[in-house]
Amino acid sequence: MPLTPLDIHNKEFSRGFRGYDEDEVNDFLDQIIKDYETLIREKKDLDQAVKNSEEKLSHFSNIETTLNKSILVAQETAEDVKANANKEAKLIVMEAKKNADRIINEALEKSRKITLDIEELKKEANVYRTRFQMLIEAQLELLKGTDWQKFSVTQEPEESGEADKAGSLAPEA
C-alpha cells in the first residue's frame, strides 16, 4: 500500500548516537510531504481527466456507431428507393409501350377503315358517273329522236294561242 502524506508526517525515527540533525530531517520530510501531496493531487486530476476523456470517447464512439448505422440505413433506403424507382420507371415504360401499340393499332384500324371508305366512295362515284352518263346519253338520244321535229319552228302557228302551246312544249333554255 502506498504511503500517504500523513504517513510521512507521522513517521518517527528512532534516535541513535550521532544521528541526523532532527530539524534537517523534518524540513526534508515536510518538503517530501508537500511534493507527495502535489503528486497525489495531480494524479487525481489526471485520473479525472482520463475518466472524462474515456466518457467523451465512449460518447463519441456511440455517436460514431449510431452514425454508421444511420449511414447504412440511409444507403439501404437509397438503394430501395432507387430499386423502386427503376421498377416504377420500367412499369411506366411498359405502360407507355402498351399505350403506343394500342394507339398505333387504333390508327391503323382507322386508316384501313378510311381506305375502305375511300374505295367505296370511288366505286359509288364511278357508279354515279356511269348512271349520269347513261342518263345524259339517253337524254341526247331523246333530243336526236324524230319526236322533236314535230315541234320544230318550220311550221308557223296560225293563232297566238298555238304559239303559246308550241312554246310551252319546247324545252326551256
Automatic annotation (TrEMBL):
<feature type="region of interest" description="Disordered">
    <location>
        <begin position="152"/>
        <end position="173"/>
    </location>
</feature>
<protein>
    <submittedName>
        <fullName>Cell division initiation protein</fullName>
    </submittedName>
</protein>
<keyword id="KW-0131">Cell cycle</keyword>
<dbReference type="Pfam" id="PF05103">
    <property type="entry name" value="DivIVA"/>
</dbReference>
<comment type="similarity">
    <text>Belongs to the DivIVA family.</text>
</comment>
<dbReference type="InterPro" id="IPR007793">
    <property type="entry name" value="DivIVA_fam"/>
</dbReference>
<keyword id="KW-0963">Cytoplasm</keyword>
<dbReference type="GO" id="GO:0051301">
    <property type="term" value="P:cell division"/>
</dbReference>
<keyword id="KW-0132">Cell division</keyword>
<keyword id="KW-0175">Coiled coil</keyword>
<feature type="coiled-coil region">
    <location>
        <begin position="29"/>
        <end position="56"/>
    </location>
</feature>
<feature type="coiled-coil region">
    <location>
        <begin position="86"/>
        <end position="138"/>
    </location>
</feature>
<dbReference type="InterPro" id="IPR019933">
    <property type="entry name" value="DivIVA_domain"/>
</dbReference>
